[in-house]
Write a structure and sequence with these properties.
The chain is an alpha/beta fold and 225 residues long. Helix content is 38%, strand content 16%. Strands 6-1-7-8 form a four-stranded parallel beta sheet, sandwiched between helices. Strands 3-2-5-4 form a four-stranded mixed beta sheet. Helix 5 packs antiparallel against helix 6. The chain is elongated, with a radius of gyration of 22 Å. The termini are far apart.
Length: 225
């Protein structure tokens, strides 16, 4: 077969897209909308010891503290955190590695701590997108409006949210969630751009190898005459 007629291998590797940032910025809603917009995007249900906030929650499996600690000892988690009030959150290692093996993208809704923990284990595959409200005041208003925490928990969550600002520069992207549909389009565009990176298309350079010729870089014009 003529190599000129062989289609380029542009199959990209799977990516772990993490919507990270403070509570009250719409990360969970964006993650759900991203999955709804493309059935090829998967997710792994996080494991947590906190109580469900609503019957409609679909991103979490709720377990006891004893069960969670046993799972830590068994090495079941790709990452886990213990943010507050004896609550634990974790992501199972098995589903993440199975998705990467298949080249499937996953989306996560994390605090910056969870994002950085995941990135330490899968640095080449993890893409961090910091999601923020239009202002700090709006973020605080959204937190207060959830109505799912006690006054003590709300104060702590506000402090934790502002502490998350220390990690903005460790993300690849930053979006302001002031218009949900526009923000969703931004996240979708980020995904498309990341999938087009040359380093994520491992078969691409091999497709060009048959046509590659040794060359020298020339930094200066050759002499005339």
């Amino acid at each position: 077969m003529n190599p000129d007629n062989t289609p380029l291998d542009t199959t990209p590797e799977g990516c772990l897209f993490v919507l990270s940032g403070p509570s009250g910025t719409g990360k969970t809603s964006l993650a759900q909308a991203l999955m709804d917009s493309d059935p090829d995007i998967g997710y792994t249900r996080s494991v947590t010891t906190r109580q469900p906030r609503s019957a409609a929650e679909r991103l979490y499996d709720h377990v006891s503290r004893e069960t969670f600690l046993r799972m830590i000892d068994e090495g079941a988690f790709a990452q886990w955190i213990h943010p507050s009030f004896d609550e634990f959150y974790g992501t199972l290692r098995g589903p993440v590695e199975a998705a990467l093996e298949k080249g499937q993208d996953l989306v996560f809704d994390y605090s910056p701590e969870g994002y950085l923990n995941l990135k330490r284990l899968y640095p080449a595959h993890t893409v961090g997108i910091f999601v923020m409200a239009p202002s700090v005041a709006e973020m605080r208003t959204r937190l207060s409006g959830r109505g799912s925490e006690s006054d003590e928990e709300l104060v702590l969550r506000r402090r934790m949210a502002e502490r998350d600002f220390d990690f903005v520069d460790q993300h690849e992207y930053h979006v302001v969630n002031d218009d949900f549909e526009r923000t969703l389009r931004q996240v979708q565009a980020i995904r498309l751009a990341e999938k087009a990176r040359v380093r994520r298309q491992h078969g691409l350079l091999a497709s060009y190898a048959a046509h590659r010729r040794p060359t020298l870089l020339r930094y200066y014009d050759p002499p005339v005459g």
